[in-house]
Amino acid sequence: MTSQGQLDADLDPLWQDLDRAIGQMLIMGWDETEVTPQIRHLIEDHHIGSILLTAKNLKSAQQTAKLVQELQTIAHQAGHPQPLLIAVDQENGGVNSLFDEEFICQFPSSMGQAAAGSPELAYTIAKATATEIAACGVNLILGPVLDVLTNARYQPLGVRATSDDPQEVSQYGIAAMKGYKDAGVAVCGKHFPSYGNLDFLGSSLDMPIITQTLEELSLSALVPFRNAIATGGLDAMFVGGCGIANPSMNVNHACLSDQVVDDLLRNELGFKGVAISECLEMEALRNEIGVKAGTVMAVEAGCDLVLLCRAYDVQLEAISGLKLGVENELITKGRIYTSLKRILRMKKSCTSWAQALNPPGISLLSQIHLEHLALSRRVYDSSITVMRDNEKLLPLNQSMDKDEELLLLTPLVKPLPASSATKTILEGKNGNVQTAHDKWAHRDRGAMMSGEGVFREFGKSMARARHGKLLHTSYTANGVRPVHENLIHRASCIIIVTADANRNLYQAGFTKHVAMMCSLLRASGQKKSLIVVAVSSPYDFAMDKSIGTYICTFDFTETAMSALVRALFGVFNPHGSLPGTLRKSKKVIKSRQHWLVENYNRDRDGRGLDDLLQGLARASAPSHSYLQTSTARTFELFNPSTEEAHFVVRNSSTHALYGFCATYYTKGIGILAAIFVDPAKRNVSIGRSLHRRALRSLTQRRGIKKVQLGMCFPGVYLGIPVDDGNKLKEWFGRSGWDTQFPKRLTNMVIPDLSGWSAPEGLLQSIQRASICFDLIHGLDNAESVLNHVATHANPEVYELYKAALQETKTCGVVRAKSPVDSLLGTVIICSPGSHLAGHIPPLHPGRTNALIGGILAPIVPSTAQANLVLQGLALMGVRQNKAHKSAKSVLSWLQDDSYEQLLAMGFDILQSFEEITNGPENFVDAV
């Protein structure tokens, strides 16, 4: 091909007609079960060469074969040199475009197949799946999914991905790819560069973002794509529509970026197949760029096939956009012929007119159906995973008497939509879908039976298998209702089903509530067994050791639920295992390097800790400014009511500290208040070694009731810093902490007190409410204050108040009182230079020498006047700080969303944290 884009000798002269060539570069769909005039027009007059079929098009295997045959006949009669590419999503699990109980078999999701533990089985499943859809005339499968669930707990792909281990994803992805290929179907890996760790930032684009750097992607997310490409068997690659935001790349839509398609996919990874764009009908792209320009950008970026799912007017717009791109010389003929050759090469590998016009259909499907049904049952049985059964409740027919009642509690979940559902469907019919995360999670082009229907049938199957009494009801975001309480009191065993509880938090809350009820009833001598079954993501309660019996099924199709019934009643002994790091976690922890952890010694380690803190401050983001004013002395309270135990990993030769961990114990609560690792020594298990030693020390304390992550006194970390995103939270989650229900704690600041004045009307509102304030010093007048704090806050906050009251010259407590002298709220006031500031880094001036006043730990119980009381306490605190000549005020330890009341007063957010509190039993395996 010359620079003028002359036709290659190996291309049919027919392709000199650019309209025909452009038609081959588009893959389109529609929403009906029959051929419409519009789709016929696209094939006949616009020469569209590829069709995407979704569940909206497909009613049965027989209808699918007839529909595909009709589409191919239209293309043949219209003079298409090669048959149409006919593509479907047929991932199994919850995402299947073609479902037909008589002839098409259901198999587990990608993660379910990995749980079965056999790549050979994954190959067999893929070959069976592809054989079935090929019998109906389909020649391109949009799969396998090659995404690595880097942030496994919170990603919407869920069980559609294999796991969070790139090598495991590669192994199963390549096995599936070979199975598809051996059945004669072309394969398309997805979703490049990765949908496995998306941040839903609530941007104006409503577009999820990849925030990892290219180096980070290369080490994990890109590994399965690289490995699949290296096999030479990957025909196509689906390029996603997500954004990318990192220091080396800023892309709004990956499939429109030459950095992603031409540079990364083709030049770096060496992909020579067909690049297929995400559907350009997505709302964010249409609003920001427009379909015409977007189609041109996709081709310029290196995409060969541009996807437009359903809207006929938008599809015509895309066609005219490509033609306009050629006229404006934005797209050269050479560029079009490059894509054309790739597409025609793929078509040649997976179809011919003889195959396309005569799909075998039902005649073949009826021959292989029984064999595939047996395979389906075998692999579902192999995938069912019992992660824990501490009380030996399985099988149920051995742990329960026939006359005992079994209670089944199932959520009212929505089915996955059959196609990329419109906003009307998502927000009209399913009013709960609000966030960008939810919209993305529910956008799949797949079909699943309604959860309610599946669970109703599951309940009936349970009753039949048990030959005994079974009670079944659903639960919703309304929580535990009286009807649930009555049924729980009656039943001897309760089974709770959850489906993606990490994204549907009401399920997590409901399950925790019921678990607590069962625990209390057991304590009173009643038999109350609890089984939790996660029927989608296995991460719902994977790390929650308080759930003693925990089972995972990886999807909630009828087939999966049938296998679950067999597992519950001992028809087979389930041997599935959780994929990725969950499977390997115990082995990995044992095989990781162990560092010698020693008790902290002030004289020996104090200077090393100061050096470590300074190094961390230099390496940290500006939002971690509190590290700059932290020293070794910050962590030493010498408080008679608080036991301290600090630990270090050190180089005994150079005396350098590689890591430090601070722990405290007071009145039944063990607290991990800080854990630091030298930035140059990370990812070699120093933090894990310190964490294990700290948890062992805390959980062995006599009378331990709770373990807490984060502390206000000393106040270096009130919890996990929110600014660190999910990575740190994930690390603690993998280390045994249940991070699902944190308490948000916020530090706020007025950076310039000289220009600050009270909001208009605030004083008048306080006066009208008859709220009065006074300031007390010393412990002599503090009984009511300390009783108030003891009632409404944790022991470490109580110790903070005691320390403040003892510091009579520089600290005091402001009380808010009602007209009848009852206490409405309290807050600590610190003047600059207080002893307390040494333990609370935001109050320490550091090198600036600016005078900083403190307003600490407001304790305001929930009442109708709570917001006004909080604002009043803050106002009194600011006035006191100004009176002590402070240049700025820091307000520390605001709980949950109470900080919102202070934004209007001129406070800015300084830092936000998430305090985590767990029971000590969570850490039985971790230590």
TrEMBL record:
How is this protein named in the record? Glycoside hydrolase family 3 N-terminal domain-containing protein
**SUPFAM superfamilies (alphabetical):** (Trans)glycosidases, Acyl-CoA N-acyltransferases (Nat)
Q: Which family does it belong to?
A: Belongs to the glycosyl hydrolase 3 family.
Q: Which Gene3D superfamilies match?
A: Glycoside hydrolase family 3 C-terminal domain (3.40.50.1700), Glycoside hydrolase, family 3, N-terminal domain (3.20.20.300)
Domain of life from the UniProt record: Eukaryota
* InterPro entries documented for this protein: Acyl_CoA_acyltransferase, GH, Glyco_hydro_3_C_sf, Glyco_hydro_3_N, Glyco_hydro_3_N_sf, NagZ_Beta-hexosaminidase
Q: Which Pfam families match?
A: Glyco_hydro_3 (PF00933)
Q: Which PANTHER family match?
A: BETA-HEXOSAMINIDASE-RELATED (PTHR30480), PUTATIVE (AFU_ORTHOLOGUE AFUA_8G04060)-RELATED (PTHR30480:SF8)
In its UniProt entry, the species of origin is given as Coniochaeta pulveracea
**Is Nuclease given among the entry's keywords?**
no
Q: Which UniProt keywords apply?
A: Glycoprotein, Glycosidase, Hydrolase
Q: Give this protein's Gene Ontology molecular function annotations.
A: hydrolase activity, hydrolyzing O-glycosyl compounds
Q: Where is the Glycoside hydrolase family 3 N-terminal domain?
A: 18-345
The UniProt entry's GO biological process terms, in alphabetical order, are: carbohydrate metabolic process; peptidoglycan turnover
